[in-house]
Here is the input.
Amino acid sequence: MQHLLVEAGYPPMFWARNFSAAHDLLSLEKIDLIIVAEDVGDEVGIELIWSLSSEEMSPPALMIADEFSRIRSEEAENLGAKDYISWAELTPRLLDRTIRCVVAENATRDAARNNADDLIQRIFELRHSNQTLEEQASQSAHMVEQLDLMRSELENALAEVVHTKDQLEVLNEEKTKLFSIIGHDLRSPLTSLLTLGEMIDLMGESMTREDLFEYITGMSSNIRIVSSLLENLLEWARLQMDQVAFQPCIVDLHELAERTIELLSPVGQQKSVSVRNEVPEGMHGYGDLNMVDTTIRNLTNNAVKFTPENGLVTISGEQNGNVFTVSIHDTGIGIPPERLKTLFVLDKGATTNGTKGEKGSGLGLILCRDMVQKNGGEIWAESEAGNGSTFFFTLPVGASSG
Here is the structure.
């Protein structure tokens, strides 16, 4: 065999006389090919092939037999031999060709195994990368949801800020107008009070009883004007600052109309104006008792103010579905169309004196507007100059109303 290898151009080979020596060589040297004789001393070469084939990364084996046997050849190949050659057919050329084929096949196998290992490693890396990407995608989706939620909250907050800003601008504008109106409407009665007081102080001893009574009556009238104005102003200011307790309940509208008529009876008698209650008994709305009472009283007081002597003011009510509509009608002077449009808007110089010169600021209607809206209702007026006016406001139906 050594002679054949040299003729085939191979360097000297390592020799082992038994299994143990073969294993020692494999553990010490890098072996590219094992040539095994069918009989190795007292041992069978095919058993060595089977033993080596069970070891991972063992070199390929070529088996040389004394005689060719197909059965032994198949058995050797099944146990791991790469080829089975008899001594009779072995030549340097065949040996070289066989060695090259076996080594090349083994190299291909090793390369395929290495490629497979690399591929498996790459698959694991890709799987890990995919898992990482999925986690990042999940985190990104969560972040997108959070960003969308934050954007929605910011948009809502911005809308709320804009709405609050608009409300503040309206309130600020109304406050400016209110101060102008109050300054104008307070100055006149206070100046009158001051003048009447000075007249009484200077001429009190020389005044007749009739003159003195006339002066005192004038002072009383101006005091009532100032008191009413300040009361409405205080109530409106408290309402704007949410300092008025809002306690909705079942409200007897017929009873409130009766109370208003009793309270305003002296004012009506002075002008010979009749106030009639046509609100059906048992008519119950739902709202804040004090606010509804103030609304009915202010609207009725205005109706009496703008109704001439021997006129009539009527408080009525009717149910329309889930709301009650309360109306206060007068036979007074009526309201011009241009003024009707701005009744519930603070506007300097837009007030009108009553039929007996009664002063007003228009603040009472603004107060009624805000109170009705606070109770979830609406307020409006219908009028024709010279033919009287009717003021309406609505309230939700109370639970005990039929």
Notes: The mean pLDDT is 78. The domain at 246-402 is CATH 3.30.565.10 (Heat Shock Protein 90).
